[in-house]
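User: Hey, quick favor. My workstation is busy. Could you predict this chain's structure for me?
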Amino acid sequence: MNAFLRSLFDIIAIDIAHLSSYLSLSQQQYLAQNLKSINDLDSGVYTDQEGENLEVLLHFLTCHKQEIFQLWNNPCDKHILVSLYTSPILSGNYDCFHFDLSKFNPTYNSTGLKLTLYRVGRSGENTASLGNSWSKTPRGLVNYVQSSAIDGLSRPIYEAEVNDSEVLCEGNPQEDELILKKGFVPEKVRLLSKNEQHDNLMEKLKLLLKI
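Assistant: No problem, here it is.
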C-alpha cells in the first residue's frame, strides 16, 4: 500500500495487516492506484468490479467520507472512530474489517461491576480469539443479527462474565453494545450449546428470531 493509504488507515484505526490478508494483489493495486490523496474519496473511487472485499471497503470509505475528512483534518476527534466502528455498512458477514481499538479513547466509566455479556461470533471464532463487540441483553444480540442479516444460529454464540473495567466504550444503542478493550480478559466465557434448556439464552434467541 502507498504512504497515503497507510496514513489513512492509521488515522481511521483499520488494521492494515488484517485487511491486506483479505485483499488480493490486484485489489491492493487498485487501491494504491486510485487512492493517493484524501481528495480521491471525492473522485468516484468506488467499484464493484474488483471483488466483494474491496467493494465493501470502498463503499465504507465513500459513505463515511465526511467523517473521514473530519478525522483526517483533526485526528484528535477520536469519538468519530466509534461511529465508524458501529457503521451499519459493516455487516457481520464481512470479516475483512478489524479496528485497532488501542487507538480509541476509553469513555466508559467503570464502577467495578461484573457484567454478563453475549456475542455472536465470526465463523471459526473460538474462546481464544474472541472479538470485542458484545451485547448486554439477548434482545440486543437479536437486533445485531437482524440488522447484519446473518444466520445467528449458524455462528458460535458466547456468554461471558466481564469486569466492567474491561469496557472501552458503548457502541450501538439498538444492540445494547459494549466495545471491550483490546486484549480484554473475561472472568468466565462459554460457548452456548444449540440444545440448551428452554429458559436460557439459546431458547430466547430462537423465540425472538422466530425460528
